[in-house]
Amino acid sequence: MGRPPSALLLAAALLLAAPGAPRPRVTANFACRVRAESALRRPRCHQKEPDDAALTPPALALSTARLCPAAHACQPCVRVRVVLHTAGLGRIRGLHLHFLVLGSNRASWLKVWRKDPEAGSSLWQVRFDCFPVESGHRVLVSLGTIPERGLSLSQSHLVAPEQAGPEFSYAWLPAARAIQVSVPRGPALTVRLCHQLALECEELPSPFHRQALVSGGRSVVLPYEFLLPCLCIEASYPPRDSLRTKRCPFRDQPAAHGAELWASMHFHDHSASGEAHMAMVLSARCPLRPAATLCWKESEGRACHGIPNSTATESEWAYMVEKVDVHPLLCFQFSYGNSSHVECPHRPDTAWNVSVSVGFAQLRLDIASAVPASFSAALCRQQGRGCEPQAPVYTVTGPDSGRPGELSLLLPMRVLGGCVLVWRSDVQFARKQLLCPDVSRRRVGLLALGLALALGLLGTVLLLRCRSLHTLSTGPWGCRPVLLLCSPDSEEHAARVCGLAQALRAALGCSVRLALWEAGSVGRLGALPWLYAQRELVAREQGTVLLVWSPGSARLYQLWQGAGAGSSGSADPHGLFGAALACLQSELGGVGAGQGGWALAYFGEACRRPDVPPALRLLPCYCLPRELPGLARRLQGARPRPGHGCPACWGPGRGTGGPALQPNCPR
User: Fold this and answer.
1) Residue 391 φ then ψ, to 5°
2) Strands 433-435 and 123-132
3) Which CATH number fits the domain 352-441, given the four candidates 3.40.1010.10, 2.60.40.2150, 2.40.30.200, 3.40.50.1000?
4) Please, which residues bridge with residue 567 across strands?
5) pTM beyond cutoff 0.85
6) Answer CATH for 169-257 from 1.20.1440, 2.30.30, 2.60.40, 3.90.1200
7) How confident is the model over 118-139, as pLDDT tens digits?
8) What are the start-end ranges of the E strands in 86-184?
C-alpha cells in the first residue's frame, strides 16, 4: 500500500504547529537552518526581519531576557543579536556562535546556515532567543563564520541578580471578554496581554495585540480572543529590556480548558485513503500537547464512541494512526485535562462504496474501490440499534497488481428481511457499513425457481424419511459434503447456482463448497490449490462433486479442448472451470461411470438441449428441478439407478453433430 509519509507529516507539523513550541528560537532575515549543541535542544528557525536597525555592522550585541518554560518558573537568559556585512568576507555559508559561562566553564555552541548562500542581501541579521544563564553569572559569546574567513567577534555579558519587577493589579471581565489592568501611583508602565510560550510571552494575534502605556494611578481594559491557560498579563517599564512582571492567572482556571481552548486550535487534515492512515496536524496558540484516539460517530451531530487501542502517535503536533479505512465519520478525539474535542477528516467521500442486489436465497455485493484492498461481509440480524455479524465471514481480495477496481461477492440469504455488514478487512480500524436490501423487488423467475428447489428438496427429505427407503447405501441419515462447480456464465445463472447451493444446505443439511461463496479463499490460495483441497476433502468423506452444466459450460469446454478457440464464449478468469474439467477427465480415466463421486446437473428451462460432450455422458445426470428426488438420494449416498446417466437421455444428433433429446427425457 506504500509507506506512510512520515517525513511529509513532520514537515507539515513544523510549518503549521503553534509558534510557541517549547524550544529556543532563531530569527534571521533569510531562509535558514540551525544546529545546536544537544544541551541547548535544536532551536526553530524563522525568516523575519529582526529589529536590529540600531546596530552598526559588524556587531555582536548581548542583552538579558527571560526564559519561561510552560508550567515552570522563569529564569534569565542571554539574547544574542548579530548584524554582519558579508561582502568583504567572500562566500560564507553560515555563522558559528560559541558560549562559555565563566565560573562554571559550561560551554555550548550554535550554528546558523543560510539555505541559499547565493540569494538575498549581503547583510546578515540574526537573533537568538536565548542562552540560559544563572542570575549573577557572566557569559562569553564568540562569533565566527562558516567556513572560517578570519572574522572573530567576542562579547561578554553579566546577568545581574534579578530585582523585583513593577507592580500592577488586574480584574477579569468575562462578560466583556477582557482584562482590566491597573497601575499603582508612580512611574508609567507598558502593559499587554500575551501567550506564554517556552522562551517568551508572544503577542496576541491581530486585532488583539494591543500594547498600552499606562500612567501611574490609571487603568486600561485589554480585550482577548480566547480564554486560554497560557494567556498572561505582562507589565514593564518603558525602556527596552527593562524588568518585567508577568502573571498567568488562567493556568488552573476550568473555563480556560474547555470549549475556548479547542476553538483556538486549527486542525489540518493529512489523511490518505491510499496510504491507509489518518493524520491531523494541530496548530495552537498554547504549547499544549493533547492526547488523541480514534472514535466512531453514528451520524453527524451524534456522540463519538471511542475505539479501544487506537491511540495516535504524536510528533511535533502531528497525530497519526496507521492501518485505517479513512471515513468521514471515523474521527480523532483529542483530550486535554478534563475536556475533549472531536475532529473528523475534512473530506466528504470514501475510498470505496458498495451496492447490493437480491436474487433468490442470495445477496450480490458489488464493491467499487479507488484503492487496492480486501473486503469482508457477514450476514446479521438487526436487534434494536445494533446488528451483530454472524459466522461465516465472506472475504474478497483485489488483484495483486495494486490497481483499484470492482469486486463482487455473493452471500447466501438465510432469512427474509436480513441485513449484511460490509467492511474493509486489510486494515485494523474500519467502519462496518450496514445494508438492508429490499427483498420485495426480487425477480419473479428466480423466486419461482428457488421456491421449487427448496420445496422439492424438502418434500424429498420428508418422503425418504417416511418410506425409509432401502436404496440408501449408508446407514446414518444425512447429506454428505458437496463440491458445487459451474462455469462463469451470466448473473442469472450464478444466482440459480447459489439458490441451489442454499437449498441443498437448508433442506438437506449438506455442507456445500461453492467458489462463489469463498472468493476470498480462492483469491488467497489460487484456483488450483483451492479446487484440489476441496476435491480431496469431499473424496475423503465420500461426498459428491456436482457439476452444473449450461450453454456457457459447453462453450468453455470447446475452448478448453482447443476445438473452438476462435469462437466467442464466456471467459474463465480464474481458470477454475478448466481445472475442474482436467480433474474430472483424469478421474474418469481410472474409474467407471459414477464411481468417482461426480454427478452432472442442469436447469431444464435454461438448457433445453444441453450440449454435454461424449466424455461426460457416463456421469449421473439430473434435470432440475424435476429430478430433485434422484439428486437428493445421490447426495445422501444412494447409488444411481442403472441407466440414469446422460446416455439415457441423449441419442445421436440430427444434423448438428450434437446429441438430441429422446422423448423420455424431461424438458
Assistant:
1) -70, 150
2) unpaired
3) 2.60.40.2150
4) none
5) no
6) 2.60.40
7) 776 788 899 998 898 888 899 9
8) 94-102, 106-114, 123-132, 138-146, 153-158, 169-173, 178-182
